[in-house]
Design goal:
With 231 residues, the protein is α/β, with parallel strands linked by helices. The chain has two domains: 152 residues, Rossmann fold (3-Layer(aba) Sandwich); 58 residues, Winged helix-like DNA-binding domain superfamily/Winged helix DNA-binding domain (Arc Repressor Mutant, subunit A, Orthogonal Bundle). The protein is 51% helix and 14% strand. The protein is built from ten helices and seven strands. A seven-stranded mixed sheet has the order 1-2-4-3-5-6-7, sandwiched between helices. The chain is elongated and about 70 Å long.
Length: 231
């Protein structure tokens, strides 16, 4: 069933949502195409496979909702009035929108494919396409989205643990990640080696780590980059 996003509550106006199987993961396939018949056809196809879809008649309509897009992926037509599909890809990337993009075109060629892939497309599908072509690409795109969300979740959890450290413990952590031994850390911070050991033990406990390797993994997941190469 298709309904206006305004009626479904909290989603962008001017887009249509088609609900699929409630048993599927909470992902939405965002379809961007200026051809209403194509939008309806893709929405019905996605519904038949149990996916939820939202359709947009232009790249500009999608961008108007870009800051509140439900997690999922995009199916984007290359040739559209106004902003085309590749320009939309570039703009989404510039805004940090993580949704994988599937590009659909009736004019596939090598330069176009290269541009699409460089812009982060998971697939480029040439018209006429089969339903299986679309679904294979959607499955790949949503797998990538799941990977992105897991990485984000890991990063958030790591950052939350690190936020519990005191400023001095954080200083010790940074030097540990750089591979500094306790004596070097003590010299760098102007404290005793014994104090470094205490801070190091506190870091291990607060990060719930049993080895220095685990500490390093959590720090890297949180975006801490050592000033000197590890190893």
């Amino acid at each position: 069933m298709s309904r206006s996003q305004g009626e479904s509550g909290g989603a962008p106006a001017g887009a249509d949502t088609v609900a699929g199987d409630a048993g599927k993961p909470a992902y939405v396939v965002h379809v961007v195409d200026d051809d209403e018949a194509v939008r309806r056809s893709l929405a019905l196809l996605l519904t038949s496979f149990g996916y939820v879809s939202t359709t947009y008649a232009s790249a500009e309509a999608l961008l108007a909702a870009a800051d509140r897009l439900a997690p999922g992926c995009l199916i984007v037509d290359v040739r559209m009035p106004g902003m085309d599909g590749l320009a939309l890809q570039a703009e989404l990337a510039a805004r940090g929108v993580p949704h994988p993009v599937i590009v659909v075109t009736g004019h596939a060629d090598v330069p176009l494919a290269v541009r699409a892939m460089k812009a982060g497309a998971v697939d480029l599908i040439e018209k006429p396409y089969s339903g299986e072509d679309i679904m294979r690409a959607v499955r790949a795109a949503l797998t990538r989205m799941e990977d992105v969300r897991q990485q984000q979740s890991t990063a958030e959890a790591a950052s939350a643990r690190i936020a519990a450290l005191t400023p001095r413990e954080h200083d010790v952590l940074l030097l540990l990640v750089e591979g500094r031994p306790n004596k070097a850390i003590a010299h760098e911070l102007g404290i005793s080696p014994r104090t470094v050991e205490i801070h190091r033990a506190n870091v291990m406990e607060k990060l719930a780590c049993h080895s220095l390797a685990e500490v390093v993994r959590i720090a890297l997941a949180a975006g801490i980059v050592p000033k000197v190469p590890l190893g």
